[in-house]
Structure prediction request, 650 residues.
Amino acid sequence: MRNVIELRSIVKTYDMGGVEAVHALQNVSLTIQSNEYLAIMGPSGSGKSTLMNIIGCLDTPTSGMYEFNGINVSEMDDNELAKIRNKEIGFVFQTFNLLARSDALHNVELPLIYAGVSATERRRRAKQTLEHVQLGDRIHHKPNELSGGQRQRVAVARALVTNPSIILADEPTGNLDTKTGKEIMKLIEDLHHQGNTIVLVTHEGYIAEHAHRIIHLLDGKVESDEKVLKRKTYTVPQVS
Amino acid sequence: MLYFLTELKEGLSISFRSIRANKMRSVLTTLGIIIGIWAVTVMATAIEGVNIAFDKSAEAFGTDVLYIQKFPWVSNEDWQTIRNRPNLKTHYADKIERHASLIEAVAPVVATRRRATYGNNAIEDPMISGTTNAYLFAAGVTLEDGRFFTEEESKGGRPVCAIGATVVENLFPREDPIGKTIRVAGHPYTVLGFFEKQGGLFGEFTSDTRIYIPLLSFQSHFGIGKHRHVTIQVRVADQESMEDAKMELEGIMRKVRRLSPGDRDNFNINQQELLTDTFDPISATIAAIGLFITGLSLLVGGVGIMNIMFMSVTERTKEIGIRKAIGAPKRTILLQFLIEAASLCVIGGVIGLFVAYVTSLIVDQFLPTSMPIVVVFIAIAISISVGVIAGFLPAYRAAKMDPVEALRHE
Ligand SMILES: Nc1ncnc2c1ncn2[C@@H]1O[C@H](COP(=O)(O)OP(=O)(O)O)[C@@H](O)[C@H]1O
Ligand SMILES: [Mg+2]
Prediction:
């Protein structure tokens, strides 16, 4: 199996200016392979989001080495990182982070705009991806005209539309009720079945149990890293 | 290239959506630009209008006509010495006629203000100008209708006259003036002909408000005393040799006045060029000051745009974070906000131009104005520049935002 992500001795320190510095990540090393399904767990403030942001090239580590698909990204400049985020990474956030004034279609088209895809091709792919997440009949709805679960599915479609190497989901069900949360997890699991590499942050043990592998963070350190022996799969009925 | 176009289109659509979403705020912000562009354009239009009007008016003096007078039109000489110069005499014209070789025609002109009437119509104080039949050639003017007085009429001091357009309008609103007898301070004068309207800024000096009568008639009715100002009006034969003609006239005048070689001229030879030469730098200064002051209002407008763009960037921090998170490079974010600022300014600029155009139509009723088409393009270009300059700092702040920080923003 090919390594998609390779982190070596990643440190992230927030210099608080006088006050004691915050060591959000301390010496984290981690390798993620293609088509892996990894769950990151840990208490609040343990550094899960910080790690995800670094993996997602939204943030840069204070020190350490980060290779993405074999390319060293720790020394890339802002524009190169933007390109990686655009083409190689699909990010799903807890708070959806959709453009409030744009409809579902435009939200999903957005990464393709920055990728320089032509308008007709953009539209076609965005529509297709929205259909894939069962929102074919909601493409012209704005976020505030959609339910929480539907919004998160728009966000998943946006993450998927560029065919990224990896999908990162930071507590994607955190703002959803249990039932819609399950629907989203089913969707993510389906993506994994279709060959996507997935990194998922969650609080909930029962959600993490669907992953291949679970990492526990504590105070910015990897406390445990283990394979899931008895993986669960979702059996929710097909969402409509 | 394709990417840039896509970006431009996306930037425009984002900015129009944002402008529409904040209609009231956008209107208030563009108000500064509207007023700025309006002020600059109206000022430019007025300046251009006055310049054109001046040039047109100055033409009334004739580019090939010299005016020998006691006083200079424009001077920085000591007023005392000038005032003590002797007055000119009408017979100088004969001397010049006899000795000058480079001139076409010469005529003495004296003037006074008197009431003129025809029936119940009156004109309060037109210029009554006494001159000779040579005036028509010396001034290089043509009549609209009728004729000027002949040499016989001139020498005979006949009670005849030729009148200007304003005089016609006042005395003969519905009649043909030719052949009619008007009264100038009670004295009857028969109208032989009239001039076409000249208009312009120097109404006093054009034929419009004048009544031309033979010099001798003037003398017998109004007198040509020691204190009457006399102008000797000379038209040069060839405009190319204007300077030579001037030299020649100066020589003749000095001889007539019996001036010694060391004496300074005690007369002046004026010409239209003096006016334009004087006016041009003045108008340029006025233009510079005017444009500077109105430019300040544009600057204020630009500061307003900068302010609103800073606000917009802060408000949309989250949006910027989202766009960056999914791969928008710095340049794209920068461009987006620059386009937004420029769009605001262009909208303001177009409205300002329109209001300025309407204003210029209204002002035109009192003062001549002229909006050259190039002003339109310049105004739009200025609007875009103001937008780009005012939008740069806010846009730069947006572009260099840290995506993680921006996403955390609520
Ligand atoms: N911008 C920041 N400035 C200072 N401290 C930060 C910043 N971002 C995160 N932290 C700190 O880093 C630690 C890890 O945060 P985070 O990765 O968000 O935790 P988690 O997602 O596991 O709840 C926390 O102690 C948090 O307070
Ligand atoms: Mg977190």
Notes: The two ends of chain B are 35 Å apart (CA to CA). The interface with chain A takes residues 2-3, 6-7, 10, 17-18, 21, 318-319, 321-332, 402-404, 407 of chain B (CB under 8 Å). The mean pLDDT of chain B is 88.
